[in-house]
Amino acid sequence: MAEKQRPYRRQTAATWAAGGLALLLAVLTGCGGRATERTDPATVQHVLDARAAAVRDRDAGAFLASVDPAAGGFRDRQRRMFANLRGVPLADWRYRLVRTGAFPLPAAAGGGPRIAAEVRLRYRLTGYDTEPVTAVQYLTLTRRDGHWRISSDADGAADGKHTARQLWDQGRVQVERGEHSLVLGTGQTRARLRELAHRADDAVPAVADVWPGRWSREVVVEAPDSVRRMAELLGSPDDSAYEGIAAVTTGEAGASARAPADRVIVNPRAYGELSALGRRIVLTHETTHVATRTATTATTPLWLSEGFADWTAYRNARRTPRAAAPELTRAVAAGRLPDRLPTAADFGFDAGADRLNRAYEGGWLACRMIADTWGEDRLVSFYRAMSAASNGPEALDHTFHEELHLSTAQFTERWRTYVAQVLG
Prior knowledge:
This is Lipoprotein. This protein is α+β, with helices and mostly antiparallel strands. The protein has helices at residues 18-28, 41-56, 60-64, 72-84, 190-208, 227-233, 268-272, 276-292, 302-314, 321-324, 326-333, 353-374, 376-388, 394-404, 408-423; strands at residues 90-100, 114-125, 133-144, 147-152, 174-177, 181-185, 219-223, 247-250, 263-266. The chain starts with 17 loop residues before the first helix and ends with a helix.
């Protein structure tokens, strides 16, 4: 049943002159060759700053000057990565050293002193990100022939320290711009990228119609060429967990009052199996998560965040409750009316497809009931009120009382009656 593949789970450049390159090499040697084996963190940060400047200036020579020439395979991958970035509209790109001694270094034959560094990459896309995307990197720096350069980003893997992969690590990035969207893909046809941009462009006004508050009204979609590459972008070693997931939205919930940088990452296989309506629902659902990100906190139950996204996506879809909630319809017909609102465990990767679908459907019907009974504005108000609630199990009950004048138990009973009525 392709339509029931659920969409979401919570998780100007100027070339450097010769003098600029000479300055980079001086930085890499540690202030003109005065580096010692006990390297000051500032020296490492200077290396990272020079590397970041090379990316911002689109200077391949200066970028490769930060890479150990003796690390042949890594250097080749870095050369390709830099080339893959060519079409990506970068507003900013910076590295910050978090710490040295970040992981045990494997034994190496020959070579000079080495440093195991934990680094944070922070970048923004021009016209789309008001806040940066942050990604962790675990880098090995080697001092060879008097120069400190980066020789690996994989030495920490044996200790569980994995460098986060980005789309440009996977291949040449293709770019498609929409009215409200930017689609970045690898190994995609131009038609597929345009279709994604079209769906995202339609989703933005649909979401803005129900969530008119402050958000970017722009969506960045990433389209890797396989589910394995999708899992890699999400930092997961298990691609089977995403087989039936059409798309995932990444981002830090409630990070700041400003809109953080979200990415909608599409599973090419599952998304490709959906009908036109299914694709519209998926992109609208994910765009809802982008819009509501700053109002989504640890106190927001998953049934509410996922149910609200589904409610927005189905709002103008003209689907009957039975058609939109087949798993829960079957459960009700079999006399298995749910006795509680969906929990976080019901949305877990190990919940199983049927239980997961029932969780999404139950959350959607809870939000649909609020909108039908108290009005759409009150549903939005309820969502926002949850983001302002204090932590603890009493937060939901307090919000129910304040917004709907019901206890959690009373709301649950009304929801159970509603589910039986609309699906029975």
